[in-house]
UniProtKB/TrEMBL annotation, chain A:
It comes from the Bacteria. Residues 2-248 form the ABC transporter domain. This is Fe-S cluster assembly ATPase SufC. It holds the Pfam family ABC_tran. The keyword ATP-binding applies. PROSITE patterns: ABC_TRANSPORTER_1, ABC_TRANSPORTER_2. The gene is sufC. InterPro entries: AAA+_ATPase, ABC_transporter-like_ATP-bd, ABC_transporter-like_CS, FeS-cluster_ATPase_SufC, P-loop_NTPase. SMART domains: AAA (SM00382). Keywords: ATP-binding, Nucleotide-binding.
Length: 251, 426
């Protein structure tokens, strides 16, 4: 599904190397988790994959289902099936959440040569999906993320994911800022989307989310590189002992 | 004080090209206005009030040529139930207009004010314009009062069931129109006025609005999309106790537009909102000049102006709130913002507050900025292409101004047209 090889990334405007040779392969149907110390490059990896400006790939490649995505525009990557649930969802004053969702869903359908969803089908689908995430109608009417609480923003990300049905879902710390019940809702939302044809890359600092979304593989990203890969037990080790041991061992 | 010679001769050249209309009882008002023009002189680039906007083409004797724009869509507001009043190149078109007969109001052409002896109109014509000449001179408005060739006098006495719609058709590429309307909203009466169209290659329009206690007037106008048209408009409004005046202007295209609004809150608890949304691309200069005077207790005023500019377009905002002595509990708000879609475009703003009362809440702000890159990336990451995402953000930027429109159907119509125009432009 997603194959990253020897990915090196620096900041466009500064001589700062952030990713220093990331190798990662996420198979369809699998959930991979990425953990790692603050500033190790996890969000950078997610932004580079989704096409944000400001980064320069100096070496390596990233392919989604065999297609090189690094040369594509962000919207083309989205149409190809890439989705990033932002660590910090962006507020867009003046753009209604509903308008935004409908525009996005239809833009992707159009890009894939599918017919647009009718207004009533769209409405039905949003309402049903919003309900399972406990997002009320009033929140759907408000401008995108404006005045949303931290947890509401994260649930809104999952709603977008559910509506867009991407092939590869990257969740960047979607658990941070969530209360226990909301975390369960979000995890249920993710689990509902687990499917043979879909891959997940879940970035998190905590074992708690992984209790709900059981990962198949866990990676540790440190200083711009994946330094260790293992099963779910690796996350438990981090939870119990922190990164010091793992980093020392790999050094 | 002697006027600078250049100004003097420019004024004379313009006046030579005009003739004072023969109109019995308005003659005195017209002559008084003419002498105001002669004393003030027409605007020149040297005038402080015209620092950001070149008045030359608005002042010169001949109107510059302007091609007629053929829109491939239904004219604005056509879908609404309304009473339509049509002017073609500044001349009333009775054929194209509806019957000027509607419960709750009377409509007469200004040329009939005298023969029909319409007192209220005689007492209003040129009066608010003359009041509006201090403390800042507005010579083009005085020129209008003196030389207006057409226009209507509307007296609103009840709650009118449908909007009055002015359709200003531009058909001759050399047309030069001067229109003057006077509107009196009687106590407790209520009306919505719509205006649509460029009117002429060069348009000088003046509207005097007098709202009695408890009266309400909503004005929504769209200035026409002819690229080469020029317009200088003046709106003078005087508000009585507990009255409401709300105005919204949409400007898309037009090589030169200067919209002046002079609003006086003279009765307690009155409310005046004035808003504008403009979208300019390339050879486009748009100037909103607003002067609001609070001269009563507990009045509210709100100015919301948004401009989207690209390819070297220029936006200007000069907005003033004057709170007179004794105008306590004034609530004054003013915001002017521009969205610059490239580095060639510019926004020039001069917000001013002048306050002589101590118990007031006035705020003003002006910003100028590029499109929010974070927001743009967020939208694109969801699959919306860059152009559509930019349009969405542009509409979002204009929303605060469009939201000032009271009628949701009219607001929705304006938004959907803007969507189409933005999409077609690229
Ligand atoms: N645009 C930028 N300008 C300057 N520094 C940047 C920029 N983007 C990333 N960095 C730096 O790159 C490093 C990696 O940042 P990144 O956000 O990817 O870390 P992270 O692993 O997601 O951390 P966290 O766990 O705190 O979210 C940090 O040192 C960060 O300061
Ligand atoms: Mg991060």
């Amino acid at each position: 599904m997603l194959e990253i090889k020897n990915l090196h990334v620096k900041l466009e405007d500064e001589e700062k190397q952030i990713l220093k040779g990331v190798d990662l392969k996420v198979e369809a149907g699998k959930v991979h988790a990425i953990m790692g110390p603050n500033g190790s490059g996890k969000s950078t990896l997610s932004y580079v994959l989704s096409g944000r400006d400001g980064y320069e790939v100096t070496e390596g490649s990233a392919e989604l289902e065999g297609e090189d995505i690094l040369e594509l525009e962000p919207e083309e990557r989205a149409a190809a099936g890439m989705f990033l649930a932002f660590q910090y969802p962006v507020e867009i004053p003046g753009v209604g959440n509903m308008t935004f969702l409908r525009t996005a869903v239809n833009a992707q359908r159009k890009a894939r040569g599918e017919e647009e969803l009718s207004a009533s089908d769209f409405l039905k689908e949003v309402r049903a999906k919003a309900k399972t995430l406990k997002i009320d109608a009033e929140m759907l009417k408000r401008p995108v993320n404006v005045g949303f609480s931290g947890g509401e923003k994260k649930r809104n990300e999952i709603l977008q994911m559910a509506m867009l049905e991407p092939k590869l879902c990257i969740l960047d710390e979607t658990d941070s800022g969530l209360d226990v019940d909301a975390m369960k809702l979000v995890a249920d939302g993710v689990n509902a989307l687990r499917d043979e044809g879909r891959g997940f890359l879940v970035i998190t600092h905590y074992q708690r989310l992984l209790d709900h979304i059981k990962p198949d593989v866990v990676h540790i990203l440190a200083n711009g590189r994946i330094v260790k890969t293992g099963g779910p037990e690796l996350a438990l080790e981090v939870e119990n002992n922190g990164y010091a041991g793992i980093l020392a061992e790999e050094a | 004080m002697a006027l600078a010679e250049v100004k003097q001769s420019a004024t004379q050249a313009r006046l030579m090209a005009l003739t004072l209309p023969e109109s019995g009882c308005l003659k005195a008002a017209r002559q008084a206005a003419l002498s105001r023009v002669q004393t003030m002189g027409l605007p020149s680039r040297r005038d402080e009030y015209w620092k950001y906007t070149k008045p030359d083409t608005l002042v010169q004797a001949e109107a510059p040529k302007a091609a007629v724009f053929h829109a491939e869509e239904d004219p604005m507001f056509n879908a609404f139930e309304r009473l339509n009043i049509v002017f073609v190149d500044g001349v009333f078109d009775a054929e194209a207009s509806d019957d000027l007969d509607l419960e709750g109001l009377t409509i007469d052409r200004i040329e009939d004010i005298c023969c029909k002896d319409i007192h209220w109109a005689k007492d209003l014509y040129g009066v608010l314009e003359a009041r509006g000449q201090t403390p800042v001179e507005r010579p083009l408005a005085a020129l209008n009062t003196a030389f207006a060739t057409d226009g209507v006098a509307i007296r609103v006495t009840g709650k009118v069931s449908k909007p009055i719609n002015f359709t200003y058709v531009h058909s001759d590429e050399n047309s030069d129109a001067i229109l003057h309307h006077v509107i009196r909203v009687e106590s407790g009466a209520e009306v919505t006025v719509l205006e649509n169209g460029p009117a002429a290659s060069r348009f000088n329009k003046c509207m005097e609005i007098d709202i009695a206690d408890g009266g309400k007037l909503h004005l929504v106008r769209a200035q026409g999309r002819d690229h080469e048209r020029r317009a200088a408009t003046h709106l003078f409004a005087r508000l009585g106790k507990e009255s409401v005046f709300k105005s919204f202007t949409l400007t898309v295209n037009g090589v030169l537009t200067r919209n002046e609004a002079v609003i006086e809150l003279t009765g307690d608890d009155a409310v005046a909102h004035i808003a504008g949304a403009c979208v300019g691309d390339g050879d486009f200069h748009h100037d909103d000049t607003v002067f609001i005077t609070h001269d009563a207790v507990n009045c509210e005023s709100r100015q919301v102006f948004k401009k989207v500019l690209r390819n070297g377009a220029t936006g200007v905002f000069q907005g003033k709130i004057l709170v007179k002595e004794g105008a306590q509990k004034t609530d004054g708000y003013q915001i002017s913002q521009s969205l610059l879609l490239d580095e060639d475009s510019q926004f020039l703003a001069k917000p001013e507050l002048e306050i002589y009362a101590d118990d007031v809440a006035c705020s003003h702000g002006s910003t100028s900025g590029a499109i929010d890159e974070e927001g743009l990336f967020y939208l694109r990451s969801r699959g919306v292409d860059k152009a559509d995402a930019t349009d969405l953000m542009t509409l979002a930027f204009l929303a605060e101004a469009v939201d000032e429109i009271e009628d949701p159907e009219i607001a929705a119509d304006i938004v959907s047209r803007l969507e189409g125009w933005l999409a077609r432009r690229r």
